[in-house]
Amino acid sequence: xxxxxxxxxxxxxxxxxxxxxxxxxxxxxxxxxxxxxxxxxxxxxxxxxxxxxxxxxxxxxxxxxxxxxxxxxxxxxxxxxxxxxxxxxxxxxxxxxxxxxxxxxxxxxxxx
Length: 112
Hints:
By secondary structure, this protein is an all-alpha fold. It has helices at residues 8-31, 35-45, 50-111. 0% of the residues are buried.
């Protein structure tokens, strides 16, 4: 028995479980491109989690759709901002040209 009242076998069980979860996480990373393989793996090791997996897959699909919508909105906003910047630059250029013309006309009056 250890100080906290647990046996060495219990501690070893926790280590094995921890090792299992690390292996499972690694397996999930490796099988991410293959969702059916991952689903079969989860079903084989814990069939009670299948409904959870299906619910998570549904939620993931909805999240992906929402991400696509947000990316499109971001692109639209970026294009609008670029259009506003182009209009502002064009106005500054036109005013600068008008100022130059006015200066030339002013000099022309001064010279006469």
